[in-house]
Amino acid sequence: MKVKNSNRWAPRGIRPWLYTAFAVIAAGTVRIMLHPLLGPIMPGTAFLLAAALVQYFFGMTRAIVAMVLGLFIADYLFVPPYGAIATLDQSDLALVISYPLITLVVICLIERLRRAQFRAEFIASVAQSRYEMLLRLDNERALASRAADETHRLLRHLPHYHDDIVLIKAFERRASAVGAAGSAPSEPGIAEGTRFGSLHPEDLVRLSATTHPGSQRVRIGTGGVYRAIVCIAERFTTHAGDFLVFRLEDPA
């Protein structure tokens, strides 16, 4: 995965510059305190450490500024003759060559590591968010599947234990949406009730083709003897789909 702007991991604003100035001042203070003990030895070491710390926390631009400031302060205060830059001798030349070279190598390595760290953290956060999205989708899918199973189980239960139900038609919302778009929707599922076989065949065909709620008269009977009765169709909308329930108004 390519991560754009991985070189912009460093914080922005005025505060990092204040911390950079504080790091240079602190390095100079520590070196002044150690000057009676060290003398002209390692004049730029404290500023190298300050530049490395600035690089780790605030980026390369501020680290280079800290390095340049440290170079001038070290050459002015800690390279003999102290307090003067008028003459350029071997000590000055050694500081000017060694200090920037070593400091640049250190801050470049730290910059590379920080960019790699930023990239790894960014990829990890993206992976974590995608994992959480997949978990939510799996949970929603499992809940929807369980709810659909419970709905279908209820639909299988109702026609067999309620004498007034003739049939139940199930309509899938996706099929309805496809039909509205111009394609032929799939046939709705039909669950037969206990009075399904008592209806006249012509009425069964008419009810099977009905897709809207309402009431209509049907013929019910046995042995070729039928009587007219009102059949009411009611539509129920659930998360598993739409259902049309046909029941007899007076099943006796």
Automatic annotation (TrEMBL):
Keywords: ATP-binding, Kinase, Membrane, Nucleotide-binding, Phosphoprotein, Transferase, Transmembrane, Transmembrane helix, Two-component regulatory system. The chain crosses the membrane at residues 16-34, 46-73, 93-110. It comes from the Bacteria. It is found in: Membrane. It is a multi-pass membrane protein. The keyword Transmembrane applies. Residues 17-120 form the Sensor protein KdpD transmembrane domain. Its main location: membrane. This is DUF4118 domain-containing protein. It comes from Paraburkholderia sejongensis. The lineage of its organism: Bacteria, Pseudomonadati, Pseudomonadota, Betaproteobacteria, Burkholderiales.
